[in-house]
Structure to design on (385 residues):
């Protein structure tokens, strides 16, 4: 059955429809950055500055999108970045995306603060999902979460290092987000305009931090949730916090949020297997560099010493080609998949995957690139590297 819906051939189309079907308070949580929304815009605009040089005089071929990462071959060079509160944005969305990742063989990273638990996502993906850990200050909770991830078959652990404090997000502050969300009159009116979201929310129940529920005491409003997060998690990572995790975890470990030579050097010295250059989708430091500019500078010096990946700012298959040509070994998209699910529901993740794959395939045929690993040979290096 054809899962690609030709009415929505671009991320712009998916975002437009999703903005109508998701209540404003939830859509703005997905769509917004921090402070003045400078870096969220810069992330994408800087990627779009990358130019590729085509090679037209050659024989016809079919591009091979398969990409090897950590001894596993995926069908494409992109996966799904971790997103918190996914079930608030669209009911059951983590499960919907996990099912698509299993069907089409691409990695899905489950966030500690997503709305499905480790065990559920592991069952859907046959243990193929990655897990992103918010560092717990309580060692008992830390070890328990790691044990649950291991027992679920997870082989790649992602340590979040770019949230030493919660980002200042004016839209979220205005919307009074809580988990479950605080139902102000304003929010209720927004929900009434989105009947499908409301109906599916009733069917799936109020979203919660399912992985963390066993460590929480009942339902929490925003103030209680903030206190729980502050008391339970320590966003500031250092070598002494990472070392015991490296000792405990026998699978691959990736540090997400690396953007400087100082941090990548520490990552390598700690025996970390790879990094995701990220700025949390532009949601933490509005005054920071775009991820593509940070990544390009790191690739020049460290591409042979560690596995360098990227997220934040990618919105299309063309963007995937751009970052791979810039030296990324793999890349991740978050908002694009959530726009797809918000727009098209249960078919949204499948459609988004097919859309990105079609876009990437077209670019590779157009420039004459047979394999994703060869995209780096097609960048306008005189201008960018």
């Amino acid at each position: 059955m054809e899962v690609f819906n030709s009415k929505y051939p671009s991320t712009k189309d998916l975002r437009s429809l999703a903005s109508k079907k998701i209540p404003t308070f939830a859509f703005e949580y997905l769509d917004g950055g921090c402070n003045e929304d400078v870096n969220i815009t810069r992330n994408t605009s800087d990627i779009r500055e990358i130019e590729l040089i085509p090679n037209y005089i050659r024989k016809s071929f079919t591009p091979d999108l398969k990409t090897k990462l950590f001894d596993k071959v995926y069908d494409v060079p992109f996966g799904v970045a971790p997103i918190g509160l996914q079930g608030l944005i669209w009911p059951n969305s983590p499960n919907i995306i996990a099912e698509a990742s299993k069907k089409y063989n691409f990695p899905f990273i489950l966030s500690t603060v997503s709305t499905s638990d480790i065990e559920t996502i592991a069952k859907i993906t046959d243990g193929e999902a990655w897990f992103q850990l918010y560092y717990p200050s309580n060692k008992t909770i830390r070890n328990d979460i790691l044990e649950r991830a291991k027992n679920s078959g997870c082989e790649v652990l992602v340590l979040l290092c770019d949230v030493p404090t919660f980002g200042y997000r004016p839209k979220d502050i205005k919307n009074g987000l809580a988990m479950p969300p605080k139902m102000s009159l304003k929010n209720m009116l927004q929900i009434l305009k989105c009947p499908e979201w409301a109906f599916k929310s009733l069917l799936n129940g109020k979203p919660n931090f399912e992985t963390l529920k066993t460590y929480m005491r009942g339902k929490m409003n925003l103030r209680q949730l903030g206190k729980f997060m502050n008391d339970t998690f320590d966003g500031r990572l250092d070598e002494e916090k990472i070392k015991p995790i490296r000792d405990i975890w026998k699978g691959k470990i990736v540090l997400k949020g690396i953007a400087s030579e100082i941090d990548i050097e520490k990552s390598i010295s700690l025996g970390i297997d790879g990094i995701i250059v990220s700025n949390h989708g532009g949601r933490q430091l509005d005054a920071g560099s775009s991820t593509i500019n940070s990544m390009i500078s790191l690739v020049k010096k460290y591409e042979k010493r560690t596995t360098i990946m990227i997220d934040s700012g990618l919105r299309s298959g063309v963007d995937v080609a751009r970052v791979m040509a810039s030296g990324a070994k793999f890349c991740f998209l978050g908002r694009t998949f959530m726009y797809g699910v918000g727009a098209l529901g249960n078919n949204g993740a499948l459609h988004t995957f097919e859309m990105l794959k079609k876009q990437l395939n077209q670019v590779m045929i157009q420039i004459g690139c047979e394999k994703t690993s060869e995209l780096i040979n097609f960048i306008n290096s005189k201008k960018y590297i």
User: Anything to note?
Assistant: The CA atoms of residues 64 and 371 lie 5 Å apart. The beta strands are 67-69, 72-74, 78-80, 109-111, 130-133, 156-160, 252-258, 274-277, 307-310, 330-333. The chain has a mean pLDDT of 93.
